[in-house]
């Protein structure tokens, strides 16, 4: 390719569409979408990787006019957002489980702003979310995203992504799976908490002077933390499996 050819109309439009595809991915997928990463850095990263992947970009296959370019940009944004939804549904199993655990511990009111999403969530969910983020970094999730971008450039034409029935059904199933798996992770603590409530109720019937607020809740919180430490490794392993399954499911985009 001669240098003069990169300033052709179709190459410029292709560069813009590739930039929007990568930018949408960086806005939606875990790690890159972290709120502590400023929009300036995200835009700079998107531009940098657009330059990197630009030589492997296939010829543009859409007419060069305002309507088709607008639809192509919306298609690229949809691709990035849908990929982000697929990965976030797998990642949010751990935050949903943390919400259930916080509720059973009585920590529902103790919430803070999650740096990953920028929304308020219980502190147990935030703790598990941050640990899960480190697990994803140890799995080289950011490298997987770049490999997906490279494969998508070759197999999904710029401006040619369409929401298929398979993707829609997968998102619905992944949403229900998020609640099921999250409940499975939190189930040991939920079961133990319900059992402790039964024991405390029996104690209050036999010993009316037993103060549940002063004695019962600290014991319940301590036992919950012990169980949380015991299931911590297995919950992170489940998160790892869910993320790997979600990445394997990204082949349906091709």
Model description:
By secondary structure, this protein is an all-alpha fold. It is 73% helix and 2% strand. The protein has one domain (3-253). The chain has helices spanning 9-28, 39-53, 66-105, 123-138, 141-155, 165-206, 212-249, and strands at 111-113, 120-122. Strands 1-2 form a two-stranded antiparallel sheet. A hairpin with a 6-residue loop joins strand 1 (111-113) and strand 2. The longest helix has 42 residues, at 165-206. The mean pLDDT is 80.
How far is it from the N-terminal to the C-terminal residue, by CA?
Answer: 27 Å
Number of strands: 2
Order of helices and strands: HHHEEHHHH
Helix and strand composition category: mainly alpha
Please estimate the helix content: over 70%
What is the assembly state of the chains in this entry? single chain
What sort of overall outline do the alpha carbons produce when their principal axes are compared?
elongated
Hey, roughly how much beta strand do the residues contain?
under 5%
> What ranges have pLDDT less than 50 throughout 5 or more consecutive residues?
none
Q: Can you count the helices?
A: 7
Number of domains: 1
State the strand order across the main sheet: 1-2
The averaged pLDDT comes out at 80
Query: Compute the gyration radius: what is it?
Result: 23 Å
């Amino acid at each position: 390719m001669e240098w003069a050819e990169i300033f052709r109309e179709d190459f410029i439009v292709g560069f813009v569409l590739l930039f929007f595809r990568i930018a949408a991915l960086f806005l939606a997928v875990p790690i890159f979408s972290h709120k502590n990463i400023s929009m300036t850095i995200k835009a700079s990263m998107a531009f940098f990787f657009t330059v990197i992947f630009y030589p492997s970009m296939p010829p543009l296959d859409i007419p060069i006019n305002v309507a088709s370019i607008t639809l192509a940009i919306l298609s690229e944004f949809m691709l990035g957002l849908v990929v982000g939804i697929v990965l976030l549904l797998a990642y949010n199993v751990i935050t949903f489980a943390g919400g259930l655990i916080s509720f059973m511990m009585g920590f529902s009111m103790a919430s803070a702003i999650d740096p990953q999403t920028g929304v308020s969530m219980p502190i147990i969910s935030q703790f598990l979310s941050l640990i899960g983020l480190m697990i994803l970094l140890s799995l080289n999730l950011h490298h997987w995203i770049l490999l997906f971008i490279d494969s998508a450039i070759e197999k999904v034409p710029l401006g040619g992504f369409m929401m298929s029935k398979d993707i829609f059904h997968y998102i619905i199933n992944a949403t229900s799976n998020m609640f099921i798996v999250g409940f499975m992770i939190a189930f040991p603590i939920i079961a133990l908490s319900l059992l402790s409530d039964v024991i405390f109720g029996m104690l209050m019937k036999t010993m009316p002077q037993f103060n549940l607020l002063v004695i019962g809740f600290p014991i319940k919180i301590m036992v919950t933390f012990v169980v949380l430490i015991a299931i911590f490794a297995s919950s992170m392993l489940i998160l790892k499996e869910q993320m790997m399954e979600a990445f394997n499911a990204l082949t349906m985009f091709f």
